[in-house]
Specification:
mainly alpha; two-stranded antiparallel ribbon; 7 helices; globular
């Protein structure tokens, strides 16, 4: 059963069953690793901010580099108007990144390999950005669906395409992260199974692939957190600056 590459994605309950009506609120392995990710983030940044040294140690350097990286990303994609939303985007980036990275540890659980987790995050971003857009521009926010310079003959078709594109944002945002993490971990498990089944003599080739794939998956884990955060910045830029 453990050899099944899909077994690693099983969600199971930890502790007693908790139900409110038909809603199951039980604590699961997915919940556990979300809590662990949050705790590790808080621990690192609390330790990094505890002593502001002129020559920073490794934890302080990691904290400062993360802060600068996200700050520059927001400035480059959404401009100065998005600065009030720095805390949210920073928290989002670090949460997705640490969930991805902790999933690389053997026998751990990859939270972001489940569509329900990534879709809830994406849906929250979609709803929040839409609300910000209407608060900022009122019904003028609907101009987002009417690109400038489009001939009147094509305008109805373009508006429909723009609306469909806008509504598909949470789907594309969530599926991109979920699919990449699930596919990568499945491949790692498959090649790991080849190493075990072929033994010492025949397992060298799949072992080499496993090592290379692990390095690639670490890079993908970072890139997917970056893509998730930068797309959030782009959506926020549309809401704040109403480019159309």
């Amino acid at each position: 059963m453990a050899a099944n590459p899909m077994y690693q994605f099983n969600v199971y309950r930890i502790g007693p069953e908790i139900k409110i009506g038909d809603v199951d609120l039980s604590f699961t392995n997915a919940s556990l690793f979300m809590v662990i990710s949050s705790f590790v983030i808080l621990l690192i940044f609390n330790l990094g901010a505890k002593k502001n040294r002129l020559v920073p140690n490794k934890i302080q350097l990691l904290s400062e580099l993360s802060y600068s990286f996200v700050s520059k990303m927001i400035s480059d994609t959404a401009g100065t108007k998005a600065k009030p939303y720095f805390s949210f985007i920073f928290s989002l980036f670090m949460f997705v990144l640490f969930c991805n990275m902790l999933g690389m540890i053997p026998y751990s659980f990859t939270v972001t390999s489940h569509i329900i987790v990534t879709f809830v995050l994406a849906a929250f971003i979609f709803v929040g950005v839409t609300i910000i857009g209407f608060i900022k521009h009122g019904f003028g926010y609907l101009k987002l669906f009417v690109p400038s310079g489009v001939p009147m003959v094509l305008l109805p078709l373009i508006v429909i395409i723009e609306i469909i594109s806008y509504l598909s944002r949470p789907i594309s945002l969530s599926v991109r992260l979920f699919a990449n993490m699930m596919a990568g971990h499945t491949m790692m498990k498959v090649f790991g199974g080849f190493v075990v089944s072929l033994g010492i003599v025949g397992g060298w080739l799949p072992l080499g692939f496993s090592v290379a794939l692990t390095g690639l998956e670490i890079l993908v884990a970072f890139l997917q957190a970056y893509v998730f955060a930068i797309l959030t910045c782009i959506y926020l830029n549309d809401a704040l600056n109403l480019h159309h």
